[in-house]
Amino acid sequence: MSEENWTDAKIRACPIYEPGLPIETVARDLGLDPGSIVKLASNENPLGPSPKAVQAVAASLNGLHDYPDGGAYRLREKLAEFHELDAAQILPGNGSNEVLEMLATAYLGPGENAVFGEYGFVVYRLATLHAKAEIRPVKMPGLTHDLAEFREAINEQTRLVFLASPNNPTGDSLAEAEIMDFARSLPEHVLFCFDEAYAEYARNPVNLHPLIREGRRVVCLRTFSKIHGLAGLRVGYAYSTPEVIQSLQRVRQPFNVSAVAQAGALGALEDEEHQSRTRELNRRAMDFLEKEVQALGVPVRRSEANFVLIQVPSGRDCFEALLKKGVIIRPLDGYGLPQQIRVSTGTMEQNQRFIETFAAWLEETR
Questions:
Q1: What's the structural domain count of the chain?
Q2: In this structure, are 171 and 286 located in the same domain?
Q3: Same domain, 89 and 189
Q4: In the chain, which stretches have pLDDT less than 70?
Q5: Residue ranges in 61-208 assigned as alpha helix (H)
Q6: Quick one: which of 273, 265, 202 has its CA closest to 231?
Q7: How much is the pLDDT for 1?
Q8: What is each CA distance from 244 to 176, 207, 210, 299, in whole angstroms?
Q9: Are strands 90-93 and 113-117 parallel, antiparallel or unpaired?
Q10: Same domain as 319, residue 170
Q11: Quick one: which of 304, 257, 266, 289 has its CA closest to 357?
Q12: Cα–Cα distance measured from residue 322 to residue 320, given in angstroms and rounded to the nearest whole number
């Protein structure tokens, strides 16, 4: 096979990421009033952005003519204080997605592989394929990660292991002790990437700081897109040993986090009230969705994040039917789960709107 054909084949093997549909797109395509549309597709914060983040962003706008701080000094210092680490152990990114790409660039190449759950976040697969490395998805019976199966999948060519808890999109979580034991059992040539995108929602978040202080090959990822409500700013970060962070610095694009994003993230870190209000609403919403979906006789899995997984005859059919009624949810056929939909928690009014629309669709299909 020629180099050109080989490259084309690799590109075609990369799935295209399918985001939740924007409200503006649905309104335009279906002729709906944007104000009448409910979006529960992207695990966004229904309370909106942190008010303190909004204030910080507004204050930063007069400096848009200047390049941002390329080293994100203030943000790294604040995150280091929060995690009780050194600033040299922090690396901000243009969303945690960019950090995943940096990890693949730094640690993967042809002939090497990455291990992750078959229903893990799709960017694990994308980043690995972009690095021209092999993907080694591990079966997830019962939609749950099996770390014994992960160990079986790891070989001499494995360089990265990706794991999220809570996991998107299945919502499953693993105990801290189980994850710690797994990380300590990994061979020296493997870097363990633990994705904490939903850690702030979990009642018992996993803490891998002891492993990092031991000098283990562990890197943790967080994002400001979820509980902080800053998905539109695209800012996330990694924390790890200084050696791992230095490796990522070598493949980081200059000025990868905008000045506005840095300001917003700093403001959000000060806004404990917004995080607390979001957590409280999320728990009420989870209780409501679980109870109401069960009352309809439909299997539902709640998570330790901010979404539920609902089993339906056809996720795509459900998505398209609800879309016409102005309710946006997430079908999961792209994840290999054609009979599942993922529904983000919204305001209580939005949650009620989903239940009413979903119940009407069920009635029509039965």
A1: 2
A2: no
A3: yes
A4: 1-20
A5: 73-83, 95-107, 122-130, 147-153, 176-185
A6: 265
A7: 47
A8: 22, 18, 16, 42
A9: unpaired
A10: no
A11: 289
A12: 6
pLDDT value, residue 352: 98
**What pLDDT, on the 0 to 100 scale, is given for residue 35?**
87
DSSP 25-78: HHHHHHT--GGG-EE-SS---TT-S-HHHHHHHHHHGGGTTSPP-TT-HHHHHH
Cβ neighbours, 10 Å, residue 21 = 18
Residues 219 and 75 reside in one and the same domain: yes
CATH for 63: 3.40.640.10
Q: Count of alpha carbons within 13 Å of 3, Cβ hemisphere only?
A: 0
**Model pTM?**
0.92
Examine the domain organization and report whether 295 and 150 are in the same domain: no
Judge if 142 and 13 occupy the same domain: no
Tell whether 259 and 333 lie within a shared domain: no
CA distances 289 to 142, 208, 268, Å, are 21, 31, 28
Read off the tokens for 166: 């809570």
In 3-state terms, what secondary structure has residue 201?
helix
Q: Which of 213, 237, 270 is the last residue of a domain?
A: 270
Instruction: State which residues form the domain around 358.
Output: 3-48+273-365
CA nearest 304: which of 180, 198, 146? 198
- CATH assignment of the domain containing 309: 3.90.1150.10
Query: Which residues are registered as beta bridge partners of 236?
Result: 93, 223
State which of 238, 270, 302 marks the end of a domain: 270
User: Which residue's structure tokens are 């994850």?
Assistant: 179
Q: What is the pLDDT of residues 251-281, one digit of tens each?
A: 999 999 999 999 999 999 999 999 999 999 9
Asked if 138 and 12 sit in the same domain, the reply is: no
Q: Which two tokens stand for residue 348?
A: 């209580």
**Which whole-number Å values give the CA distances from 256 to 71, 93, 242, 251, 330, in the listed order?**
9, 6, 19, 11, 29
